[in-house]
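If I may wish for something, please sit down with the protein I am sending here and say whether tokens and residues agree:
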Amino acid sequence: MRIIGLDLALTGSHKAVVADARGQPLTPVLSLRTTALDLQQLWDRAREHAAAEEEDLVLVMEPTGMAWFPVAAWALRQPHSTVYLVNSQQVADLRRYYQKHHKSDRIDARVLVKLPGLSPEKLHPLCLPTGAQLACQRGCKELDRLMSLHTAIQNRLQALDRFAWPGLEALWPETLSPQRRWLREHWYDPQALTRAGRDALRRDWVEAGGAVEEPTEAADWADQLVALATQVVALYGTDWPYLDYGYLQAEVAREQALLDWVAEQHHDLQLETVRPLYRQMHPSRHLETLKGVGQDGAAVFASFIRRPERFVDGSHFRSWSGMIPGSKQSGESEASGVRITQAGPDLVKKFAYLDADTARKYDPQLAALYYDQMVHHGKHHCQAVCACATHLLDRIWVVLKEDRPYELRDVDGRPVTGAEAQRIIAERYTVPAEVRQRNNQRHRRARAEARAEKQQQKREKPPK
């Protein structure tokens, strides 16, 4: 076996080193670009003086941006070639061991060729997605970015309302309610609103397409809005030395227009790209038979897991997903409460957590696991949901591997209906409120500080 350590560059030349199976360099550091000619020359150089042309070639790279993708696509088409994408943290740790005070592309290339010999069990052969799978992956990532942007804009609008119109949330709690959106576009200046009065507001609201509310026992919202505007004018004064509501109204109008555009792009991408690709990859849609897993989560799992048979067993799949805690053991002691590893795609971990938080409310087995973690092991909500997420991912892997629907069962393995599952969860696996309060992070931190203070007092106590 020959090993090629390739340190990728985004703009400059890549650096490569060829080594034998023991990680001993056979060539100096070579420079190349992302071209078929340069890669073929590197392959020919790696096979020089080899025992046979069929000798395996192993390419080891870090996932530097997307610079690895064209190199991997070319390398996987070559006979007897295997590609590994390694964790950048592993490379950084090994580099600190070999060259503590230096960092360069040449050193990184020499470090990469040593990883297959040092920790082969931590390396997973690269399996490139198909064109549809890659498009679905990137679509899922784009949906996530659009949703994050939508949330950020909504939070910004809420922050603007809170200082420009104190008390507006008490009148209309929803940030994107039709009345608040209309107010931002037409009547964000409190002085102009108070001068216009109640009747003008009602007339403008109807002309804008708003429904006329029936009279109720509560005061008319237009009267309440005029009263609130009067309070804002009294608070900031009539000469507005600190605020220019004309500019503020223009700003919130731009934010709302951007919010509408983001929502439209999210809707189009979801319905025209991601969901059709997901149904093409997973026509049976058995993933959606799992409680808590919807079409968006199923698209993430199907596009990132791709071929479930590439994982040897459930342990191998769990290690890839990253939804398992790290280990810290010495002698006969082993630490608990260790953070989950940083392996696996972030979207897989995110949707596994969100879907598991929903699934535990409908699946008796996951509800029992959540109850046990909270009540008997003293875990807080996030830790318990992470434990449920690991078991949910096991189910997802089996459903994809065997392509059969999931069957809801109780803790004894007996098939149950949805109504029976809800009854079992309500009777046996409802976490008491006092347990949730006892296990929340604030109380756990207070108990830890009290223990630390007690130990410190013992150490400072003079001996008898």
